[in-house]
C-alpha cells in the first residue's frame, strides 16, 4: 500500500493520520487561515480544503502541510492539481444528497478511473458512501484497491437522513451519548472494511477527540476533524485541540476503558446491519 507522498506514507503506516478539514465549501480566507495556522503549529498531518484555486495557492504560500481537496467534479480536480495540491479526495457527496442524488457503486468506480487519468503520481482517496449496504461498502473498497487506490474514507450519516436512524440508543448516562451521532456508523464501516480489505482508512464525519483512543481499535489509519476545531475561538485553542486529538490518536487504544462505549456502538451497528448476522 505504498503512497506517492513519503510524508503521508509514514503517517498512514503509523496509523496516526490527523486530517484537519477547513470546510469543503468554506472559502472564508480569515477562518480557513486560522485553522491552517493552527494545524501548522500542531501535529496535524494534512489539510482538507475547498477546491478553490485562489484559496489553494494562498495556503501553499505559507503552509508546509500537504493539501487535499475533495470534489466529484473532474474539472475542479484538474484545476486543483494545476494549483499544486498533494492529495485528491473523491467525496463531498453532501452536495448531491441535498439534491436527492446518490451515486451507485459503478458510478463511483467510473469516476475514480476518470480521476486517476488526471492525477498521475498523486495520491487519491475515495469516500465510501454511508448509504451503501455493508456488503457493497466492502466490495467497493476492494474494487478501489484493485484499481490502485490505497486510501478510502468512511462517512457518517448525512444530515438529510440522520433522523431515519434509531438513535433511541442515546440516553442520558450512556457513554454512547458522548460521541457524535454521525461518526458512529463511519467508525463501524471502517472496522468491517478493515477486516476484509487491506487498505488505509480514514474515518470522518463529526469526529471529536474523545474517539482518538479507540479509533485504531476499529482499523482506521487516521481520523478527520473539522467542526470541533472550528468551534474553538482562537488559533491557540484550535492548535491545542488538534494537539490533544493527536496525542489521543497516537496513544494506546485504551479499549478496556471504553467497554461501555464499545457495547453501545455494537448495538447500534447490529440494528443497522442485521444482515451480518446471517452470513
From TrEMBL:
<dbReference type="Pfam" id="PF04481">
    <property type="entry name" value="DUF561"/>
</dbReference>
<keyword id="KW-0934">Plastid</keyword>
<dbReference type="GO" id="GO:0009536">
    <property type="term" value="C:plastid"/>
</dbReference>
<protein>
    <recommendedName>
        <fullName>Uncharacterized protein ycf23</fullName>
    </recommendedName>
</protein>
<dbReference type="InterPro" id="IPR007570">
    <property type="entry name" value="Uncharacterised_Ycf23"/>
</dbReference>
<comment type="similarity">
    <text>Belongs to the ycf23 family.</text>
</comment>
<keyword id="KW-0150">Chloroplast</keyword>
<dbReference type="InterPro" id="IPR011060">
    <property type="entry name" value="RibuloseP-bd_barrel"/>
</dbReference>
Amino acid at each position: 500500500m505504498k503512497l506517492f507522498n513519503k510524508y503521508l506514507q509514514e503517517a498512514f503506516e503509523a496509523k496516526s493520520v490527523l486530517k484537519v478539514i477547513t470546510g469543503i465549501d468554506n472559502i472564508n480566507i480569515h477562518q480557513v487561515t486560522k485553522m491552517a495556522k493552527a494545524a501548522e503549529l500542531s501535529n496535524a498531518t494534512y489539510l482538507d480544503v475547498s477546491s478553490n484555486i485562489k484559496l489553494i495557492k494562498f495556503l501553499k504560500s505559507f503552509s508546509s502541510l500537504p493539501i487535499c481537496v475533495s470534489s466529484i467534479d473532474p474539472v475542479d480536480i484538474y484545476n486543483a492539481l494545476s494549483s499544486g495540491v498533494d492529495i485528491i479526495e473523491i467525496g463531498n457527496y453532501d452536495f448531491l444528497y441535498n439534491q436527492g442524488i446518490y451515486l451507485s457503486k459503478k458510478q463511483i468506480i467510473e469516476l475514480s478511473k476518470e480521476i486517476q487519468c488526471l492525477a498521475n503520481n498523486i495520491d487519491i482517496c475515495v469516500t465510501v458512501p454511508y448509504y451503501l449496504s455493508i456488503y457493497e461498502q466492502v466490495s467497493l473498497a476492494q474494487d478501489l484497491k484493485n484499481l490502485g487506490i490505497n486510501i478510502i474514507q468512511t462517512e457518517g450519516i448525512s444530515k438529510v437522513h440522520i433522523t431515519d436512524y434509531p438513535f433511541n440508543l442515546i440516553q442520558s448516562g450512556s457513554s454512547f451519548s458522548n460521541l457524535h451521532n454521525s461518526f458512529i456508523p463511519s467508525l463501524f464501516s471502517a472496522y468491517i472494511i478493515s477486516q476484509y480489505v487491506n487498505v488505509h482508512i480514514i474515518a470522518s464525519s463529526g469526529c471529536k477527540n474523545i474517539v482518538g483512543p479507540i479509533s485504531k481499535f476499529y482499523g482506521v489509519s487516521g481520523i478527520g476533524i473539522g467542526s470541533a476545531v472550528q468551534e474553538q475561538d482562537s488559533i491557540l485553542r484550535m492548535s491545542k485541540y488538534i494537539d490533544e486529538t493527536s496525542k489521543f490518536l497516537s496513544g494506546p487504544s485504551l479499549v478496556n476503558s471504553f467497554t461501555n462505549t464499545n457495547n453501545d456502538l455494537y448495538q447500534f451497528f447490529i440494528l443497522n446491519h442485521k444482515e451480518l448476522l446471517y452470513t
